Amino acid sequence: MADVTTDDHMADKPDDLDGTTEIVDLEPVSPGQVDAGGERRQVRRERRRLLFRSPAFVFGVVVLSFWVICALFGDLIAPYAANPTSDLRGPARQAPSLDYLFGTDTAGRDVFSRVIFGARSILIMAPTAAVISVIAGTLLGLVMGYFRGWIDEILSRIIEALLSIPVILIALLALSVLGQSRVVVVFTVAALFTPVVTRTVRSSVLAEAQLDYVTSARLRGESALFTMTREILPNITSTIVVEFTVRVGYAVFTIATLSFLASGGVQPPTADWGLDIAETFQLIKAGQWWPSLFPALAIASLVIAVNLVADSIDRVSKL
Amino acid sequence: MSQPAPTDPRVAPATTAPAALSIRDLHLAYKVRGVPRAVLRGVSFDVAPGEAFGLVGESGCGKSTTAYAALRYMPDNAVVEGGDIFVDGNDVMAMSNSELRRFRANEASMVYQDPVQAMNPALRIGRQVEECFRIIGRSKADARKDALHALERVKIASPASVMDRYPHQLSGGMLQRVVVAMALASDPKLLVLDEPTTGLDATVEAEVLDLVRTLRSETNAAILLIAHNLGVIRSMCDRVGVMYAGRIVEEGDAQRVFEDPQHPYTKGLLNAIPRQGIRKTDRALFTIPGNLPLIGTDLPTCVYVDRCPLADDLCRTEVPPQVQVESGHWTLCHHVDRLNEVVEPESNTTDFHVGDETVIQLDAVSKTFRQRGEDVPALVSVDLGFHEGETLGLVGESGSGKSTLAKTMLGIHASDDGGKISLRGRVMKAKASDRIEESTRAISMIFQNPDSALNRVWTVRRILTRTVTKLTGVKGKEADRRVEELAEAMRLSPRHLDMRPRQLSGGLKQRVAIARAFAGNPDVVVCDEPTSALDVSVQAAILNLLADLQNVERTSYLFITHDIGVVRYLADRVAVMYLGRIMELGTTDDIFKGINHPYTEALLSAVPSVDGEAENRIPLNGEIPSPANPPSGCVFHTRCHRAIAGVCDVDEPPMKEISPGHSIKCVLTVEQLSQPVEISERDQLAELA
Q1: B517 bridge partner residues
Q2: Confidence at residue A188, expressed as pLDDT on a 0 to 100 scale
Q3: Which residue has the higher pLDDT, B653 or A36?
Q4: Whole-angstrom Cα distance, residue A293 to residue B7?
Q5: Mean pLDDT, 10 residues at a time, chain B of 689 residues
């Protein structure tokens, strides 16, 4: 953040105009004056309107909601059970048809139903991992950015080291050591994302800590904890929200990859996109593309939807 | 100087001798979150070839937008809603992209506010200047020669070595000269200068303005100068347009407009500036009620109607006519005849007396920073005392150690061992965090920029309550009561308490910051340029408030500023700093009317005044030296116009009292200092540090 030290007041630059700020003064009250919360509500309303006018955001939200509904009400939507008992199974290796929209797999299970049920595990695991990484990253970032000095030096080097190793590699390593349960997967992914979040938060905190309100807090004798959590933290929430949405997208991808590599903490025959692809991708050579293609499309659509939403929120929050 | 006829939006530009710049009824809006908000509401003016036209106004009035529009530089969200722009008879709005490129390369140039941002940091100066010549079709070898010549022309000493440097190796003033050289490369018909000296020190500002004035006589370029500083406009321009809320409300000969303003806004603006040597003891400053209208606000008739003391029903129902007061001088007002009703505040009867008790005493306070293993003395053995109810003005160029002094006093920086800061006779710890509560309460600070100083997400009430509780230990109901008292003293209304800083105007934000500074009943308040981020009309109200508060609370101020007029108005005593040392200390009258240290002499002579030219300007050679290795002897001798070789470069002179309470750090006698000085031609060159 640029340190404003021009010796006279700032000129009216065309690019830093923000005409919406309702400014009030004691003297003559201009018509249409708003109450205290009015201006914030107005900005929020305008932002919301801009968001919903953006096709990318609307598309992302529609796709995302579709998967959320699948995860919540899979039983009502799916035409067949994810793991039907042997006498309820359909014919095996059927190509997509009206009866079986996405075809059936080698065991005669309906691919469409499995894709719908598969949304559940990933939509629980990915946001959980993102939440944990954002909480941990925010705490670390606050401490590093506020205190700087040797704490910051040491943690920065560790973060750089961690970031230089491919995520999947460390994840596989960690999972093989710690065992493959869903809880371990969530925490591993969270741990892997924490350095990235930390770095983002740290740089925001560094910029905030330059500002005079932080100096002012120090001058009146506030504790470091108070300054970090009450003064600085509320000012960087938008960064944190954007970071969270971005992390959810990456978490979906990482968790799906792990389950494809049979380390996702999900055991067959549970419906899971990554796992289903792993079990069926070799059949593509035999011409049976549908059992692996549809889960793959599901992963892609979810990742893209989350990213579209994240991008739009990021863009609007900067306006 | 030819005086073009008053502009009229309905008349097309004269076809015979085209104006260098002609803007006709320009309407422009910015789209913010999808909604267009009007910025320019019918701006019209002409600049004749060779003429310098100034646009003044406060922030948000649209002056920069107009300047950029003249070259059709507009941000993506700009919407031109009507009007024409002609440069030398060519319709700028109708140009295709390639025509526009050619036009900007050959016919019009711009000098920006911040030269550091205007230059590419990765390329050598020479390459960037050459580029301006290459683009107008010069060969590579010619361009190099031309570039060298261009740098000579802007009076840069040893231009060849400057060519090989990178922008970060030059000071702001030098860079701005380079930018001017680049702007003049194509010998443009129109030169637009957007706040060209705003980020520069007064001494450097004066040099850059001198340069532009000299170059003007050499070229036939028309100049459009944008500045909020009326003194700059007055000293540079033939004609001036005063802008308010996207319209020019008064236009005319610069001297006439500033001496005999014909619009209530111009008059108010001029009255709001502390000038003509007035002091707080003389009278309060004139203030313009209300706020600058926001961009996009509906202003159907007179744009100034909400703040005008002369406004009546006519002003609210009918657009004011363009009233011609004299040849080439018109104003947009219904009530020119009633202008004398805009009166200055009555003279002051309040007694601003300074107490005898010393509140804070600094003894031999130094501050040395360590940078890359090198000791950088930023503050060298400063002795200073503040009396109760006294304002001590602190002036000096940037880098002179003003802020370091303030921060060391506050304990943001710990002073070096050996120095002593005492509060009412009791020595305080060096670091703020080690100080006892009483010391923390006793000193507070008002920052330059209220946007940075106030937490954006906290309400005003929370900001104040927290500070009251933290500093005085008062809680609950009583703290609420105290906060309301504070707000009232700052003339904030109770409803402001529940707002967040973003919802308040700049002036109100600064009032909140002042309220916070006074929350603990401080003995000393450090004011670090508290009005430099504010508009003139707002500055006046804040200065009045600070003066009133001091009178009631008996607080001492350490008042840091670049604005000589403000110091003169508010300060009881003034300290002049250079390279971490106090060079001169005296009462305000001593400083402004008495014999000065040569540095003070140069500093004071540099300030462009709205009251007309200073008679004898003393240029300061080169840049302020690096504090890491200060010059031998008197630290100022390298730039001093009175330096005596073999004396000044040998021993650092002690502070000596030349009259009671007036000390200077100079070996020269009072008689020697009162001799006028000859300024040699060589001194006019800007030398490298």
Answers
A1: none
A2: 93
A3: B653
A4: 71
A5: 44 60 93 84 92 90 91 89 91 92 90 89 93 90 92 85 90 88 90 88 84 85 90 91 93 92 91 86 85 75 86 88 90 88 74 84 92 86 92 90 92 90 91 89 93 94 95 92 93 89 88 95 94 86 92 92 90 94 94 90 84 70 80 90 87 90 91 76 45
**Residues A19, B295: C-beta atoms closer than 8 Å:** yes
B303, two tokens? 């744009």
Query: Is the minimum CB–CB distance between A53 and chain B shorter than 8 Å?
Result: yes
Give every CB contact of residue B379 below 8 A, 6+ residues apart in sequence: B365, B366, B367, B368, B401, B404, B405, B408, B415, B580
Q: Are strands B21-32 and B35-47 parallel, antiparallel or unpaired?
A: antiparallel
Q: How far from the centroid of its chain's Cα atoms is residue B673's Cα? A: 30
Instruction: Return the structure tokens found at B676.
Output: 């006028």
CB contact under 8 A, A19 and B32: yes
The token duo for B531 is 């009005």
Digit-coded pLDDT (tens) for A198-247: 999 999 999 999 999 999 999 999 999 999 999 999 999 989 999 999 99
Q: Which amino acid is at A279?
A: E
Which of A86-90, A205-209, A287-291 is least confident?
A86-90
Closest residue by Cα to residue B205 from A2, A10, A14, A8: A8
Residue A317 near chain B (CB below 8 Å): no
A17–B113 CB contact, under 8 Å: no
The structure tokens listed for A34 are 């708003």
Tens-place pLDDT, residues B594-627: 889 999 988 888 887 777 665 567 877 777 788 8
Q: Which residue of B has its CA nearest to A238?
A: B457
- How far off is chain B from A63, nearest CA to CA, in Å? 26
What is the Cα–Cα distance from B96 to A8, expressed in whole angstroms?
38
Q: What is the pLDDT of residue A7?
A: 34
| 0.90 surpassed by pTM | no
By Cβ distance, the residue of A9, A27, A222 closest to B290 is: A27
Asked if A219's CB is within 8 angstroms of B412's CB, the reply is yes
pLDDT of residue A197: 96
**Which chain A residues are Cβ-neighbours of B410 within 8 angstroms?**
219
Searching chain A, which residue's CA lies closest to the CA of residue B290?
A27
Contacting B residues, span 396-435, partner chain A, CB-CB under 8 Å:
398, 410-412, 432-433
Pick left, alpha or beta for residue B532 (phi over 0 → left; psi -120 to 50 → alpha; otherwise beta).
alpha
C-alpha–C-alpha distance, residues B605 and B618, integer Å: 6
Angle, CA of B70, B73 and B77, to the nearest 5° = 120
B chain contacts of residue A9, beta-carbon cutoff 8 Å: 59, 228, 532-535
B293 contacts B588 by C-beta, under 8 angstroms:
no
- Six-digit token string for B340: 């004398």
Nearest beta carbon to residue A8 from set B290, B470, B532: B532
Tell me if A7 and B529 make a contact (CB, 8 A cut-off).
Answer: yes
Give the distance from residue A306's alpha carbon to the nearest chain B alpha carbon, in angstroms. 23
Residue B5 Cα distances to B2, B46, B167, B261, angstroms: 9, 9, 43, 19
B113 closest CB neighbour out of A5, A11, A46: A11
User: Are A11 and B229 in contact (CB < 8 Å)?
Assistant: no
> Residue B249 in contact with residue B242, Cβ under 8 Å?
yes
Per DSSP, the three-state class of B87 is: strand
Tokens 């549809």 found at: A294
Residue found by looking up tokens 């709005």 in the block: B93
**C-alpha distance from B365 to closest chain A C-alpha (Å):** 20
Q: What is the pLDDT of residue B680?
A: 52
Tell me the shortest Cα–Cα distance from B503 to chain A, in angstroms. 5
Hey, what are B572's tokens? Answer: 């009881």
Task: Report, in this order, helix, strand and coil percent for chain B, each rounded to 5.
Answer: 35, 25, 40
Per-residue tokens: B359? 């509140």
